[in-house]
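Table S2 (text version). Query chain:
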Amino acid sequence: MLIILSLLAALVGPRLFSKLGKGRQVAAAAQIKLFEQALDQYRLDVGNYPTTEQGLNALLVNPGVNNWDGPYLKKGLPDDSWGRPYLYQCPGSHGEYDLWSYGRDGAPGGEGEDKDITSWEKGP
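Corresponding structure-token output:
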């Protein structure tokens, strides 16, 4: 019986762990989409996106701009799926702003679970 359970664990374990990693990527992409909606609402109210210096915190606390009507996020500023803050730059290199997570490895680039999750590329 123990041998059968060990064999099942050996077969199922790797598949289960790859699904968990993919789930984290999907969750990070979904959070970026929510940030994009909040950033668009901020822009409608204020007239521009928050600067890099103001950062995503401008979605929660008025950075001293007129017509701010936030907070624009209901539950605060979440970290990415790996426990690190999302990165934000405005103006961006890929659009009006760039918003991204470096994925599991926390470093630029990468493949698989280490791939960056970005606002300028289609999610996982």
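Notes on Table S2: The longest helix spans residues 2-46. The domain at 26-118 is CATH 3.30.700.10 (Glycoprotein, Type 4 Pilin).
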